[in-house]
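To the wet lab folks,

You asked to see what we're planning to order before we commit. Fair enough. Below is the target structure as tokens, and below that is the sequence we designed to fit it. If anything looks off to you, flag it before the synthesis order goes out.
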């Protein structure tokens, strides 16, 4: 995958935002060409694009595309009223991940800072900012990888969960960025990837990425992870994050909490890899994070194929919260944040 960049989840083609439809991976690489904010929002809601950083980048694109429809606004007041409406709609597309809120606020602030410019200039500026955020995200992830590789032992057997690679970001990845950076220096590492039910991001996406890079990976069922820890076949765990509370509690794909508790019991280091844009200083602790629940059909079906009896009642809680006491460190682009998280996360935001 050429360092995790060959397949891009989101990019711009002129005034069109192009999104890789991840619902078809790994069998097909299909792209959605979005010329309106509504099309991007639909892609976010329906999981065509997923992963907190990538969703944030898509949110920025939606704001930029929404602003373009306001070129005919009758004055700045009307333009900013319309822009604020788009920002509010976009930030609600998915509730748990913080990167979406963060990216929308970056776009809003960019417009406000240039209020003296013409509407045409602001619209162009917003498109350029949305493109710039993608490039910045790749650089951020590479820095996460450089810091993260220092916690990966020689010849480590690494467990990862869900997908926190190129497909979940602008490129390179957070948790997979750490693995990629470690692999560049140590060709003896091995990865175990949980399948990540019910959406199978591990099976469909993480394995897909790692195999493209030639990194040894073994796919396991989610309920195999505890057995491997018990048998001392896992040396370190690295996962991504969708929102990090001010005290260090981490919201991530449902099942992360289970792995963290098992890791603590077996004395295995458990690391979270995420950019600072995932840190939400306004949410004091994990209990305050809104947890998304998704349609039950995503549990009772794989793709469009039913796997449970008709009319089965199912519950799909999409995320859980891992308390900070189970986390060994949070790997960011400015360093590895350790306890006390409340103090060190706050300091990291101002580096």
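Sequence we intend to order:
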């Amino acid at each position: 995958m050429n360092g995790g960049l060959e397949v891009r989840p989101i990019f711009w083609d002129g005034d069109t935002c192009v999104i890789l439809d991840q619902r078809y991976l790994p069998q097909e690489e299909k792209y959605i060409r979005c010329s309106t904010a509504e099309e991007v929002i639909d892609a976010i809601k329906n999981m065509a694009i997923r992963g907190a950083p990538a969703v944030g980048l898509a949110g920025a694109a939606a704001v930029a595309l929404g602003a373009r429809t306001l070129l005919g606004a009758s004055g700045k007041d009307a333009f900013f009223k319309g822009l604020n409406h788009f920002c509010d709609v976009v930030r609600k597309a998915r509730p748990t991940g913080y990167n979406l809120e963060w990216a929308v606020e970056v776009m809003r602030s960019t417009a406000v800072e240039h209020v003296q410019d013409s509407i045409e200039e602001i619209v162009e500026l917003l498109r350029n900012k949305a493109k710039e955020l993608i490039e910045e995200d790749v650089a951020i992830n590479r820095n996460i990888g450089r810091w993260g590789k220092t916690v990966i032992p020689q010849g480590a057997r690494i467990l990862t969960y869900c997908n926190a690679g190129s497909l979940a970001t602008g490129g390179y990845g957070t948790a997979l960025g750490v693995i990629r950076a470690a692999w560049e220096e140590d060709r003896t590492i091995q990865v175990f990837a949980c399948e990540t039910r019910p959406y199978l991001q591990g099976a469909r996406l993480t394995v897909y990425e790692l195999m493209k890079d030639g990194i040894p990976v073994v796919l396991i069922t989610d309920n195999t992870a505890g057995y491997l820890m018990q048998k001392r076949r896992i040396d370190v765990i690295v996962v991504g994050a969708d929102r990090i509370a001010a005290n260090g509690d981490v919201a991530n794909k449902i099942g992360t909490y289970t792995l963290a508790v098992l890791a603590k019991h077996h004395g295995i280091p458990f690391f979270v890899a995420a950019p600072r844009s995932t840190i939400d200083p306004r949410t004091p602790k994990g209990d305050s994070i809104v947890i998304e629940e998704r349609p039950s059909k995503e549990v009772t079906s794989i793709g469009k194929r039913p796997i449970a009896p008709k009319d089965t009642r199912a519950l799909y809680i999409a995320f859980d919260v891992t308390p900070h006491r189970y986390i060994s460190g949070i790997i960011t682009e400015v360093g590895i944040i350790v306890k006390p998280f409340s103090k060190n996360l706050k300091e990291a935001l101002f580096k």
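Structural context that might help your review: The mean pLDDT is 96. Residues 96 and 289 are 7 Å apart (CA to CA).

Thanks,
Computational group
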